[in-house]
Amino acid sequence: MDEPIAVIGLDARFPGDGDTADRFYEFLLAGRSARTGIPADRYNADSFWHPSSDRSGIIRAKTAHFLKGSISAFDAPFFSITPAEASAMDPQQRGMLEAVYKALENAGIPLEKAAGTQTGVYVGCMYSDYDRMTLKDLDVPSKYSTLGSVASMLSNRVSWCFDLRGPSITIDTACSSSLVALHQACNSLKLREASMAVVGGCNLIISPEFSQLLDAGGVLGPDGVSYSFDSRGNGYSRGEGFGVVILKRVSDAIRDGDVIRAVIRNTGSNQDGRSPVITAPSKAAQVDLIRRVYTGAGLDPSVTRFFEAHGTGTAVGDPIEAGAIGQVFSSYRSPDAPLYVGALKSNVGHLEGAAGVAAVIKGVLTLERGIIPANTWFEKRNPKILDEWNLEFPTAPVAWPQRGLRRMSINSFGVGGTNAHVVMDDALNFLARHHMSGCHRTIASPVLTAGVSAVIVPRPAQRGLAALREEEDAGSATSAASVAPGSDSGVDLTDNESTYGSESPARSHSPVLVAVDAPASATTRVISTEPQEESSQEPLLFVFSAYDQEGVARVQGQIKDYVASAPKRSCRILTARSSRPPTSSPRSTRDELVADLSYTLACRRTRHDWRACTTARSRRELVTSLQAKPIVTRAATDPRLAFVFTGQGAQWPSMGRRLIWAYAAFRESLYAADEYLNSLGCPWSLTYELCKRKESSRIDDAEFSQPICTAVQIALVDLLRTWQVYPHAVVGHSSGEIAAAYAAGQLSRRSAWRIAYYRGRLSKGLIRAERLASTGGSPDERQQQLKPKTGMAAVGLDKEKTMAAIERIDAMMDDGTLEIACLNSQDSTTVSGDVGKLDALVEMLKNEKVFARRLNVEIAYHSRHMKPIVDDYRKYMGDISSDLPALKQQTTPVYFSSLEGGLIPTSRLQSPDYWVDNLVSPVKFHEAVTQLLQSDLNSGSLGHHAKEQITDILEIGPHSALRGPLRSIIQQARGAAASKVGYETVLKRHEPAVDTS
């Protein structure tokens, strides 16, 4: 059975106040008409008016339905179009480009994600005034005129501009064009010719010629009103506008975490054939098409309660269409439970090429919000429409007449006999009936009151905080209502429809939730957690971007006004039951609007060149921050990022703890590390130990600090990957090389955890051995002897001066050794050795006003003192594997070794000997970073190219411990260009990780 199609985004620009989707629906609910006089910049209506239809070239109607604003306004540079080319473009082409961009934004699909995909474009049109106008002026044609006016470019221009590579088709079947386009798009999706579809329709009234032809043909009504299904029907009134919907297969929309606005169950199209008159609709053809669309998908017509008709307001067409509707549906309805028939043309006129897609957009909004808008201009039904057809033409808004599934039909037919029909269901009940988890905006139980506008504003997509900024599982982000039928959701399962083509119940599969806005009874994954001292609401990131610098301020202003005025919607944050330590935040309440806005701006918006960002925990903080006007910067054209990994010594209790409950990627990475260390026989829990307070923490013990630091660094890499932050190059300081090798894909997580675990465990054993070897004498002497025997110290000197200082200490003291362990920068070294000589060195240098400080380690890493454990270390490491297949970035990061001081064959990283050498040998960090900064990352490319060097550095570790050495090396390596190299750190000591990350 064919898979249903999801509507995931839309844009509406229709006459009068219907210039956005929300305003369009409110306009319809109010029962208003967009009818106005003919604007003077289109044509002089008085010049063409005459009351007699016998007069040629006249237009009896002096009113129609027009867009607000100028149709000439167009931001050509935004679409990479030159002014000369833009001036030759039909405004319908320009309007389609704008509408498609807005529809993709509405769908949460950034342009960079749509580009290059197998996305089809299907545009319906009927007439182009601009094309005819340009042919009248011989001075107008230019090299752009042909492409600027031909109908094929309505779709082709969209495909070119957004780099969409599926089918690109412009369809003209007159009034049914855009609904036929939707039918073709659905077929392409079902046949997998396209992965996504853009369906649009357009119509503009620029000149009088086509209206003259329509009037001469007896199609236009003299009153400038479409009296849909009314006894006064005497022809239609024209309207203009643009409409676009974005479509995907339902399974793909769920997979991608898209908001499903409505579900297209089936579509169809046919032709009247040789009817008595080509311009008159065929009742038989329409009946056949409607029935075929329903039976083809196994759909029950009795569920349908709303029918958006073509309803042009003609004396001939309306009774024929009403008769077809009645013949199909009357047996399922009654006078007390009629089929409600809508007629959009009474509100906005006949949009011709855009009429079908406008009806679809009205239908989507009606299904979502559960209130059927009124028709306008309706006083008395056409006498040829019979009561026994059980049709009702609403003159006031009507709440959806039954609980459970909302289903509707949309009808469209062209003047030449081409018909189209679409059946749609609301997203909430479709998902519930088919036991699917998905995002939607459907209002489960709308309430119709005198203040209609107060109850029809939809909630944001009910994705929940489960997916906010972490994308844990796009398929599991769902609304409570769609997964908790019968709880308090307004979902009626008494007439379950469970498979795409069947009306029989199916077995329930309960989805997994981590964030909902339903009663706690609606989910089974709720736990209580012990209170933490920090606020459970982490700050949220808000990213703003625009094509030009001034545009960022406009975007910020619009968002500020929206946030300040929108009603508050709270969402309980729940966490999964687990045997894990109490690392989850307590249950709390978050303003859902703020959370959803953060997610949308960060993950579901196109990233333009000009950007600004801010963080906030609440809408009040956000409004205050936006009033301060965050700094606007232009994104680098080709940023190249290096990850630098801190070594041991910078650790601190609870480092990164709040990231555990804030982000699933970080949390699950640490949980996996915990489980793996347990399998190696580790007697303590990594996550428990990480979350301890300072008083009870053992983080400074080598046995704990080594594996915990590495596990946190790996978890940070995993988190950054979910944010699509990837390095071009990596380097690690000392044990930081372990996580660096993982980030480069040269170590698997398990191999990295194992290398770090045994490094810490064996180091701890060596410390104990050193202490036990020297015990003896009095109790005081034994206590003194239990202190560390070796250690490390940081020194603010270069290599040569440090060696000179060591030689002076050796000359003064016989016992023990000192050696350079780390060359951090040109003026920073680390010394390892026996504590007696280390203390003497530190004291001597301090007296000479030279920076010197003992480090918080109990052993002399990167020295001969580590050699007693190398054999065991090599044995315990075992086989080492890489993680290259798991890397999702396009190119493998370049690895710079601080053991060797530069590039090495990455195969060496899978050898235990490398990690043994890393433990006992000096760290050549200065050399490695210098080479990293000076290297051309694209040196392997053929031909001439600009040198590609690192532009930004991100330190990954417990603290910004390497900031000083890095700045010093950058200054030396880049000279005057040093300031252009950016530096940031993910974590900072004693600062909340959710803020610094």
TrEMBL record:
<feature type="compositionally biased region" description="Polar residues">
    <location>
        <begin position="496"/>
        <end position="507"/>
    </location>
</feature>
<keyword id="KW-0597">Phosphoprotein</keyword>
<keyword id="KW-0560">Oxidoreductase</keyword>
<dbReference type="InterPro" id="IPR014030">
    <property type="entry name" value="Ketoacyl_synth_N"/>
</dbReference>
<keyword id="KW-0808">Transferase</keyword>
<dbReference type="InterPro" id="IPR001227">
    <property type="entry name" value="Ac_transferase_dom_sf"/>
</dbReference>
<dbReference type="InterPro" id="IPR050091">
    <property type="entry name" value="PKS_NRPS_Biosynth_Enz"/>
</dbReference>
<dbReference type="Pfam" id="PF00109">
    <property type="entry name" value="ketoacyl-synt"/>
</dbReference>
<dbReference type="InterPro" id="IPR020841">
    <property type="entry name" value="PKS_Beta-ketoAc_synthase_dom"/>
</dbReference>
<dbReference type="InterPro" id="IPR016039">
    <property type="entry name" value="Thiolase-like"/>
</dbReference>
<feature type="domain" description="Ketosynthase family 3 (KS3)">
    <location>
        <begin position="2"/>
        <end position="426"/>
    </location>
</feature>
<dbReference type="GO" id="GO:0044550">
    <property type="term" value="P:secondary metabolite biosynthetic process"/>
</dbReference>
<dbReference type="InterPro" id="IPR032821">
    <property type="entry name" value="PKS_assoc"/>
</dbReference>
<dbReference type="Pfam" id="PF16197">
    <property type="entry name" value="KAsynt_C_assoc"/>
</dbReference>
<keyword id="KW-0596">Phosphopantetheine</keyword>
<protein>
    <recommendedName>
        <fullName>Ketosynthase family 3 (KS3) domain-containing protein</fullName>
    </recommendedName>
</protein>
<dbReference type="InterPro" id="IPR016036">
    <property type="entry name" value="Malonyl_transacylase_ACP-bd"/>
</dbReference>
<dbReference type="GO" id="GO:0016491">
    <property type="term" value="F:oxidoreductase activity"/>
</dbReference>
<dbReference type="InterPro" id="IPR014043">
    <property type="entry name" value="Acyl_transferase_dom"/>
</dbReference>
<dbReference type="Pfam" id="PF02801">
    <property type="entry name" value="Ketoacyl-synt_C"/>
</dbReference>
<dbReference type="InterPro" id="IPR014031">
    <property type="entry name" value="Ketoacyl_synth_C"/>
</dbReference>
<feature type="region of interest" description="Disordered">
    <location>
        <begin position="469"/>
        <end position="512"/>
    </location>
</feature>
<dbReference type="GO" id="GO:0006633">
    <property type="term" value="P:fatty acid biosynthetic process"/>
</dbReference>
<dbReference type="GO" id="GO:0004312">
    <property type="term" value="F:fatty acid synthase activity"/>
</dbReference>
<dbReference type="InterPro" id="IPR018201">
    <property type="entry name" value="Ketoacyl_synth_AS"/>
</dbReference>
<dbReference type="GO" id="GO:0004315">
    <property type="term" value="F:3-oxoacyl-[acyl-carrier-protein] synthase activity"/>
</dbReference>
<dbReference type="InterPro" id="IPR016035">
    <property type="entry name" value="Acyl_Trfase/lysoPLipase"/>
</dbReference>
<dbReference type="Pfam" id="PF00698">
    <property type="entry name" value="Acyl_transf_1"/>
</dbReference>
